[in-house]
Amino acid sequence: MWFGTGIAHDIVKNEDAKAILKLARKVGKMRFMIAEDTNPIPVSDVANLVTDSRMGGFEDLIYVRDDETTVNIMGKVKKDKFKRLMIMVNDGSDFVFFEMKSRIKVTDITELINLATKKTPLRKKETPKQNRKKKNQDMPRV
Asked: Rounded to an integer, what distance in angstroms lies between the CA atom of residue 108 and that of residue 24?
């Protein structure tokens, strides 16, 4: 991953893209598996994979369950770095598995989130009193 991102980093002018390329340098091997339409993987096997992953040192980072859909995001964290990240999405008929080795620091993710939130700042709701003051400022004075 480093060679391609190293070349692209010098060419890219956009700060967002540079931040993502910096993060991509720290990604190692990745594995994908996608089963669509007719899921050949039984739910019990997916549950066993999750259990075995926990025994193997993976921690639950995010777990979401909605009707038939479950999303597991698990990781191995050592010394403030994500060494391995695993994402499993199991729907009734679809299954997605993603695993990657990395050297991504928690601070790297925080910087990326901060960069994204600077682009789209949160709006503060105006109180009726502030709104009235604003309207009065726009009115001409006699």
From this structure: 11
